Amino acid sequence: MPIRVRRIALILLAATGFGLAWNSFSGRGVALGRNAYVREGDEEIKAAEAKALLDKGTLFLDARPVAFYEMSHIPGALPLPEDDFDKAFARIEPRLRSSLDIVVYCSGFGCEASHLVARKLKERGIPAVVLSEGWPAWTEAGYPTKEGAQP
Amino acid sequence: MRWLRHPAVYWVVSIGLGAVFIYASLDKIAHPLDFARIVYRYRLAGPSAALGVVPANAFAVILPWLEAVIGVLLVTGLWRREAAAITAALLVMFLVAVGYVMVQGIDVEHCGCFTVGGEGRSAGWTLIASDLGLLAAALYVLLVPPRTVASVSAAEPLPAA
Question: Among A114, A102, A118, A109, which residue's Cα sits nearest to residue A136?
Answer without folding.
Answer: A109
